[in-house]
Amino acid sequence: MGNAIPIPAQYRHLARQLAAIGFLTKGSVFERKAGQQGSRYVWTRKVKAKTVTVALSKEQYHALRKAARNQRQLEATVAAMQRLSRQILFHKLTGVTRRKRLSKKVLGLI
Question: What is the pTM of this model?
Answer without folding.
Answer: 0.80
